[in-house]
Write the structure tokens for this entry.
Amino acid sequence: MVRRARRMNRTLARAFPDAHCELDFTTPLELAVATILSAQCTDERVNMTTPALFARYPDARAYAEANRTELEEYIRPTGFYRNKTSSLIGLGQALVEKYDGEVPHTLEELVQLPGIGRKTANVILGNAFDVPGITVDTHFGRLVRRWGWTTEEDPVKVEHAVGELIERKDWTMLSHRVIFHGRRVCHSRKPACGACVLAKDCPSFGLGPVEPEAAAKLVKGPEREHLLGMVGL
């Protein structure tokens, strides 16, 4: 299992050499805010919303002192904006009161903050502070179960199970690669099995179309030509 999982990770590294967090940010606070907004929302939509938001609310104190109605209007396009507004104001207040306005960089401290659960904390740690972390979102959980890396459904148990298979130094990049693969190739309803770089190692091969030409039509994203080239298409 360990050898297969690490071989699959190496294949994904060749498939997605530029895998990265697809949320736009320049500071740990911006990443925290963007990740909160990304709940039940696409990264693309969040990235359309955040430039004006970040300009209006440049630091934790700005969120702490925000007018609720005004902040709601800024983030309305991301959905669930009332709950997210409460999280952002609460986050700003907690950072000002406890951390001098700075985002802490330990999992234990991050998960105590409003709006930040374990998944969000790992995104922040891995991408803002270079602390290895496994981000278990819907794509990640779906794929590692398809691959037989774990049968767990609980995100924390998935995180621990995968952490035992993959070296710690690779955790953050693995998260990006798996999420990229889930968005571009291994779709939830119709995975592109016949055009997948992991076909030889995947126990779920055949869940989607196995005929190469049909599968190729399902592959998405800017890496499409590269991915198809890797499987000889």
Notes: The chain has two domains: 1-17+135-230, 28-102. The two ends are 29 Å apart (CA to CA).
